[in-house]
Each structure stands twice: as C-alpha cells, then as structure tokens.
C-alpha cells in the first residue's frame, strides 16, 4: 500500500429535518389539537484513531464525506428519524487542521474520537407552540443546517527514537539490524522513500519504537533531495540518533574528516530551519560502518570529527551490517527513554 501522510478533505454534516404543522383528526375526538412532530437531527461526522491503519491513502482519493440528513416530522406526534452519523477511521498520530492550518484535533491514542462536523438540530413541530391562548398553532421551525468544513489531515508517526542522517548513512541497515522491520537497502542515494517503524526489543519485557525517515541533505529547506516533507515524523520522538557514515576518507571520493563535520553541522541547521523544538531534542551521534576501517582507525577518526565539532553530547560506534555495537546502543537508548518517563511521572506527581 502506498504511504500517504497528507490529505485534504471536506466534511458535511446532515441537515436537521423540518418540524411539522399538523392537527389531530380522529373520529369522536373534537378539537384534537396540534400533533406535529419534531424533525430528526442531522448526522454528524466523526473521526476515530485506529491503530490498524497506517496511511491516509483512503482520504487522498475520497475527499468529500457527507452525513445523512434528518427526516421531517409528521402528524400524530411522529418525530422524524435522526440521520446516520459517519465515522472516518484514521491512523493513530493524525493531526486534523482547519483550512488556515490551525490545529483542531490530535488523534494520538487508539480509539480517540473527534467531532469533525456536528449535525443540524431538527426543527420543532407545532405541538410545542400550543398554549392557553393559542389552541391551534400553525407555527413550526425548519431544521438547522449541518456544519461543513474543509480540513487538512497530516500524519505524524508515533515513535520513541528517530533516525536521521545523509542518504546512504546506513539508517535502513541499522533498523534492519535491531528490529524486524525490513526497509529497502541498496547502494544508491534515497533508497528509503517512505518512513518505516521498527520495534526494538531489548529484553523480553522491554522495547521501544524507532522511526527511519528518508535521508536529509543540506538545502532540504529549499527543496533539495526530498526536502523537509518527512521531518514531521520525528516531531513526536524523544531522542534523535544521527547516523554518520564513517567510511575511509579519500577512497572513491569519500568525504574527509572536515567534510563529515561540516555535514553534521549542516543537518543540525536543517533541523533548526524546520522546527526549533525538533532541533532542541536530545541528539546522539552514531558513527556507522566502523568495520570498513582497520584496527583503531575508526576510533581515531571519530575522535577527530568530535574535536572539530566540539561535541559535548553522547556518541557511539557501530557497524550495522554485522550488528557490532548495535545491542549496546539500543540498551543505552532504552535506559534513556525509561529515565525520561520516570522524570515525566515525577513532574506530573
């Protein structure tokens, strides 16, 4: 199924049914009085978060959604039937915005419901207007129109940790090494075209979710590469793992230490351009492909890059192709995430 993370839709709630102006006409019942019933309410449009759905593809092609109108009221005190509601099932993590971009709902939990458009109230029949001085009212009210809206849907995947880096940094290989996810791996840039999620199981009862997004390059804010369109999927994460290709310098045009340091700064700058809050998230450097350098050269090269960056944060050395260092990194990630949950619980208490 094609991954779609944006869509625009129109929702139209049902109109309320009109009330009725009728009178009781029965044999042996003189002056029966008013008996017009109320109109039924119009159907509403609801959204519900469903964890069994992972894309907005259904709403890319089905853009208009209408609920049923309410039925009219009738004589003999008969009330009109209410219109059927419609329920739109959306992936967990969907943001619902108005046409101006304002956030209306954040469907962040399975089963969460949101009222997108409220159905119109049914009209009143003439039996509501009788009084001691108005024994034969002919007044009734029309049903109210239902709400109509144009909405923008935006999906942001839910993950604990997110992977970012240049194309071919080994993000897909890493997520294949630590989880059961199987994104495409190939020796050309932008192999990953859609975000993918993987569950990393540290122990039998300890796990976290990691998100892999397509590679980011300098100038993404201006549309270079795949642009910023997938960075939204990192906005809900609590930790960013910045993968760096530690291939030997000077071979087949591979970057030098200075080039790698510049690329790391450039990607950090792209995060800041996209969202200052995303740039402030904890970010760890993960030097990948250490197996391509002999002896202690990988460690020495990493130290040179760290000195050039004046890096004060945490960093790790891994080889995703053979899994070396990945288990230790995942253990540290889980400890960090568990600790942040504990701190959050303490603040809430």
Q: Which percent range describes the beta-strand content?
A: 15-25%
The coarse overall form would be rod-shaped
Number of helices: 6
Which blocks of ≥5 consecutive residues have pLDDT under 50?
A: 345-349
Tell me the name of the CATH class of the largest domain. Alpha Beta
Give the terminus-to-terminus CA distance: 43 Å
List the helices and strands and how they pair.
Layout: E1 6-12, E2 45-50, H1 57-61, E3 64-66, E4 86-91, E5 94-98, E6 103-107, E7 113-117, E8 148-155, E9 161-164, H2 171-178, E10 196-203, E11 206-212, E12 239-245, H3 257-274, H4 276-279, E13 283-288, H5 297-309, E14 315-317, H6 326-348
Parallel strand pairs: 1-3, 2-4, 9-11, 9-12, 12-13, 13-14
Antiparallel strand pairs: 1-8, 2-7, 5-6, 5-8, 10-11
Helix pairs in contact: 3-5
Structural description of this entry:
Strand 10 (196-203) and strand 11 (206-212) form a beta hairpin. The strands form three sheets. Strands 10-11-9-12-13-14 form a six-stranded mixed β-sheet, sandwiched between helices. Strands 3-1-8-5-6 form a five-stranded mixed β-sheet. The longest helix has 23 residues, at 326-348. Helix 3 (257-274) crosses helix 5. It has two domains: 6-155, Distorted Sandwich (Spo0b-associated Gtp-binding Protein, Chain: A); 161-348, P-loop containing nucleotide triphosphate hydrolases (Rossmann fold, 3-Layer(aba) Sandwich). It is α/β, with parallel strands linked by helices. The protein contains six helices and 14 strands.
What are the main properties of this structure?
349 residues; Spo0b-associated Gtp-binding Protein, Chain: A; 5-stranded mixed sheet; rod-shaped; alpha/beta; 6 helices; Rossmann fold; 6-stranded mixed sheet; single chain; 23% strand
């Amino acid at each position: 199924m094609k991954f779609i993370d944006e869509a625009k839709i129109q929702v139209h709630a049902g109109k309320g049914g009109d009330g009725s102006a009728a009178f009781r006409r029965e044999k042996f019942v003189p002056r029966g009085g008013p008996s017009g019933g109320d109109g039924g309410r119009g159907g509403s449009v609801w959204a519900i978060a469903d964890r069994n759905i992972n894309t907005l593809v259904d709403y890319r092609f089905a853009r208009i959604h209408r609920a049923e109108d309410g039925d009219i009221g009738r004589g003999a005190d008969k009330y009109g039937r209410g219109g059927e509601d419609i329920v739109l099932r959306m992936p967990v993590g969907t943001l619902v915005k108005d046409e101006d971009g304002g956030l209306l709902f954040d469907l962040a939990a399975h089963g969460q419901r949101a009222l997108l458009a409220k159905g119109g109230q049914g009209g009143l029949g003439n039996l509501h207007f009788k009084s001691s001085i108005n024994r034969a009212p002919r007044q009734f009210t029309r049903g109210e129109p239902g709400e109509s809206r144009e909405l923008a849907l935006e999906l942001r995947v839910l993950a604990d940790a997110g992977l970012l880096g240049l194309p071919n940094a080994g993000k897909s290989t890493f997520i294949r090494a630590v989880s059961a996810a199987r994104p495409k791996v190939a020796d050309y840039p932008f192999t990953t075209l859609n975000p993918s999620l993987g569950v990393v199981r540290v122990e039998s009862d300890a796990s976290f979710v990691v998100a892999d997004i397509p590679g980011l390059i300098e100038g993404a804010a201006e549309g270079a590469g795949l642009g910023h369109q997938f960075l939204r999927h990192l906005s809900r994460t609590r930790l960013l793992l910045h993968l760096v290709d530690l291939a030997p310098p000077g071979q087949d045009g591979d970057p030098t230490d200075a080039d790698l340091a510049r690329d790391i700064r450039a990607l950090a700058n792209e995060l800041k351009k996209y969202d200052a809050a995303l740039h402030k998230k904890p970010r760890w450097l993960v030097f990948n492909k250490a197996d391509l350098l002999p002896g202690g050269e990988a460690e020495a090269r990493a130290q040179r890059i760290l000195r050039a960056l004046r890096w004060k944060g945490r960093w790790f050395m891994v080889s995703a192709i053979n899994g070396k260092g990945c288990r230790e990194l995942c253990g540290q990630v889980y400890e960090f995430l568990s600790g942040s949950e504990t701190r959050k619980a303490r603040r809430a208490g």
